[in-house]
Each structure stands twice: as structure tokens, then as C-alpha cells.
Amino acid sequence: MTRQDEGRKTAGKTAEKTAERAGGRIRERILSAVYPRRCPLCDGILSGGEPFLCRKCAGKVRFIRGPVCMKCGAPLAEQQEYGAESREDQASDRGFREGQERGADFRKEKNSGQGCREILLPEESAEFCPKCKAVPHAFVQGFAPFLYRGEIRQSLMRLKYGNRAEYARFFGKALAVYGQPWLEQWNVQLLVPVPVHPSRERRRGYNQAAEIARVLGKEIHVPVEEDGVCRVKNTKPQKELTGRMRRRNLQGAFQVRAGTRMPARVLIVDDIFTTGATVDELARTLYESGAQEVYAACASMD
Ligand SMILES: [Zn+2]
Ligand SMILES: [Zn+2]
């Protein structure tokens, strides 16, 4: 049995959930026929030739660039805001625009030399950000393609609270594109989206982290564990709490269902990385269930 099979086996999906998801897909198809798809950054309507972002936003989107923290992936240098124009940025972001039109492999952009985004791989970057220097993390390593600011922040808020689950297509793709150097090294066998409490998921209709993980999983051909890990504690909203309180608030929040075993290398997926307390707590839970290396991929970093 290959490691991937092992991961797939541990995914442990129930028939009921599968049917529910199939129903969801049909609903999605009907809805997209009635309601046109929207650009995740400006919420404008997308044309057929714009699979992820509208043309205007594709030229302005800003990935985190330059040297990053070798632990959490936070930028170590000043970042430009969304929409700021410089020659270097235009060259680099054209890669994203052309890439999405051609459906190209974004690795080419990274290796093409001129004007490409520069990501220092962890071993090339010997530095930790101030937060990671101060607080040790339970996960091995992590990254995020965007800062939780401006249009990205608003987009993620609409994804979470504004019934825009479709934005996950963009964020999942961005994780696959931007995260490629890390993902290639980690070689993860299973994706675990940070679960939300069932009552919250019922209210929203979906879990935004799972929506993003499903897109990423398809992109990198890794199964997604959606049922085997759950949130058993309905925690207070983290943003109201300080670092230490966040950690205490989360203790015992997650549980791996009996009979679900984690493969060796697992990737946690979430929408926002703030202090890392959530990822750490979930990582600890996954280690207890057999994972040996737990990594993190979050759509944005606060
Ligand atoms: Zn747009
Ligand atoms: Zn860091």
C-alpha cells in the first residue's frame, strides 16, 4: 500500500456525508447557472476567460514576497499593498494573470528568472520572525500566500460570513501556486482543514477552511480529511483574546474520531494564520493520532 493509499484509507468518509456533498455539488451547479461567478477581490462578475480573478484584480494581486520566516512563512521585509504598482510587481504579477489564462504551471514563472517572485526556501532563509522567536510552534513549518489586509482581508471575510464559498477556488489555487516550493519538499499525504464547531457550520452552511482544502487537494492530488477530525469545543472567537488566552481557550478543542489514523505527513489548511495557536492545538491532536510531521498552509497571514 502506498502512503497516498494509506492517507485515502484514513480519510474515512461516511456514505451519508458523500451524498450530502454530491447534493452540494448539484446545488452549486444550479446556482452558478443562475448566479454568475464573482471575482474574490472586487466581487465583480467574472467572464468566461477569467477563471480566478477579474482582469483588473489579476494585475494587482500581491503575494507575500522576499525572505520569509523559516517557521511560519511570515514576510521578514516590508510588503507592498494590493494595488501598489511598481515595474517589478507588474512583471511578477503578469505571471499570475497569464498563468490563469493559460492554466499554466506556475513553477515556470518561479524559475523563469526575470521579475519572478522570490521565495526563499526554508533552508535558504535562516531567520525566524519575532513571533516565532518568542513562541515555539507544534507544527514543523508553514506558509501563507497573502497578508490578511485590504482586499484580501475583505475577501476572506465574505468567504467566511458573506456566503461566498466560491472564493475558495481562488484561495486554494493560490496556495498550490505560491506554496509549491514548500509542498514539493513536504510531500504531505493528507490535508486536514481546521474544523469549525458543528453548530457554526450549520449556521454558515459550510466550513471555509474545508472549501479551500478541497481545491488545494485537487490541485496537488492529495486527499482531504473532512469527517475524521472534529471540533468538540465551541470556542470563543479568537480575535477577542490575547496570545496566552487563545491557547487556553483552544485546549482540547479538537478530536480525531475513533478509528481514524493519521498518516505520517499531514498538512493543516486554514483561512487565516494569526498567532498560530489554532494550528498548534490541532497539530498536537494530530500527533496523538499517529502523524509524525504536521505542516500548515493558510490562505493569509495576519
Ligand atoms: Zn476583481
Ligand atoms: Zn514566523
Automatic annotation (TrEMBL):
Bias kind Basic and acidic residues: ranges: 84-110
Residue ranges occupied by any Double zinc ribbon domain in the UniProt entry: 30-80
Matching SUPFAM superfamilies: PRTase-like
Pfam families reported in the protein's UniProt record: DZR_2
Region named Disordered: 1-22, 83-110
Family: Belongs to the ComF/GntX family.
Name of this chain's protein: ComF family protein
Organism: Bilifractor porci
Classification lineage: Bacteria, Bacillati, Bacillota, Clostridia, Lachnospirales
